[in-house]
Amino acid sequence: MKNKDQNKDFETRSLDTVCINESHLKHQWYHNIKYLIVGLLFGIVFIKAEIISWYRIQEMFRFQSFHMYGVIGSAVMVGIISVFLIKKFNIKTIYGEKIEFHDKKFNKGQIIGGLIFGSGWALTGACPGPIFAQIGTGATVTIVPLFFAIVGTWVYGYFRNKLPH
Amino acid sequence: MEIIEFIKEPWAWYVAGPLVGLTVPALLILGNKNFGISANLRHACAVCLPANISFFSYNWKKEIWNMFFVLGILIGGIVTFSLLSNPNPIVINGHFRTELATYGITNINGILPAGIFSWESLFTLKGFLIMVVGGFMIGFGSRYAGGCTSGHAISGLSNLQLPSLIATCCFFVGGLIMANFILPYILLL
Question: Which residues cross the membrane (chain A) (predicted)?
Answer without folding.
Answer: 35-55, 67-86, 111-133, 139-159
